[in-house]
Design a protein that fits this description.
By secondary structure, the protein is of the alpha/beta class. It has helices at residues 44-51, 74-84, 100-105, 116-129, 145-157, 175-192, 203-206; strands at residues 2-11, 18-28, 33-37, 59-64, 85-88, 163-167, 195-199, 211-216, 219-222. The strands form 2 sheets. It has a 6-stranded mixed β-sheet with strand order 5-6-7-3-8-9. It has a 3-stranded antiparallel β-sheet with strand order 2-1-4, with helices on one face. The mean pLDDT is 91.
Length: 224
C-alpha cells in the first residue's frame, strides 16, 4: 500500500522557500491507479520523484508497503527503490548498445539475484507480453518509438515492483503508438496488481486510470 500523508515540498531560493507541493495526502492499494494532471511547473514531476524516493519531502511522509524509505540510509534507499519501484519515463532511456533483452535486465544488475536464469526467463516473458518476443536481440536503434517504450515498460516490471511510476510515458509517441502503449501499460498493471501512478498532460491517457487528479495551488484535487 502507498500512503502519502500531508506531503509538502519546498525548495530554498535567495528570496526564501519556494513551495511546490503543500499538504498532499492520498492512498493507493495494489491494483489501483492514479493519473496526475496539471500544467507545466505545477509540481507533477516533483511529486513523482518524491514517490520514487529520488527527492525527500520537506514535511509529511511517504510510506510504501509499511516502510518509510526516507528513514533509510542512502544505500538502503537505493536497494529499496530497486526492488520496490519501477520507472517508465517519457524518453525510454534504453542503453543503445544493448539488446532489448539486456535492457530489460539492467535493473537486476544491482541486486545480485539468487536466480539469474529465472530473471532472464521473466524478461523474455515480459517482452513476449508486450509483443516483442521476436525482437529480443534487437537494439533500440532497430525498434520504433512505440517498441522502445514497450521495452521500457518490461524493464520497469522485471522485478515485480509494488509501485510503478510513469512520467509522460506516451508524450513522445504518435497517437496510434500512444494508444497502444497506454493499453499495454494499464493491462499489465491490472494483471500484475501493481500500484500505478502516472503524470500526464493527456486527458485520453488519464481517462484509463481508476482515479484522476490535478495539481492546482500546490495541492491534489480529484477530477470527476
Amino acid at each position: 500500500m502507498l500512503i502519502v500523508d500531508h506531503l509538502s515540498k519546498h525548495y530554498a531560493t535567495p528570496r526564501g522557500p519556494l513551495a511546490i507541493l503543500d499538504d498532499v495526502s492520498f492512498t493507493l492499494e495494489p491494483g489501483q491507479s492514479l493519473a496526475v494532471m496539471g500544467p507545466s511547473g505545477s509540481g507533477k514531476s516533483t511529486l513523482l520523484y518524491t514517490l520514487g524516493v529520488l527527492e525527500p519531502p520537506t514535511s509529511g511522509t511517504v510510506t510504501i508497503n509499511a516502510q518509510n524509505p526516507f528513514d533509510l540510509g542512502e544505500r538502503e534507499q537505493a536497494a529499496f527503490r530497486g526492488r520496490t519501484i519501477g520507472f517508465v519515463f517519457q524518453d525510454h532511456l534504453l542503453l543503445p548498445q544493448l539488446s532489448a533483452l539486456d535492457n530489460v535486465l539492467v535493473p537486476t544488475l544491482a541486486t545480485r539475484p539468487a536466480s539469474p536464469a529465472e530473471l532472464v526467463a521473466r524478461a523474455r516473458q515480459l517482452l513476449g507480453d508486450v509483443g516483442l518476443g521476436a525482437r529480443l536481440d534487437h537494439r533500440p536503434g532497430e525498434l520504433s518509438g512505440g517498441e522502445r517504450q514497450r521495452v521500457a515498460i518490461a524493464r520497469a516490471l522485471v522485478h515485480r515492483p509494488a509501485l510503478v511510476l510513469c512520467d509522460e510515458p506516451t508524450g513522445n509517441l504518435d497517437r496510434t503508438a500512444a494508444e497502444a502503449v497506454a493499453d499495454l501499460l494499464v493491462a499489465l498493471h491490472t494483471e500484475q496488481q501493481t500500484m500505478l501512478v502516472a503524470v500526464t498532460h493527456s486527458p485520453t491517457f488519464a481517462a484509463r486510470f481508476g482515479r484522476r487528479t490535478e495539481i492546482a495551488d500546490r495541492r491534489l484535487h480529484d477530477i470527476p
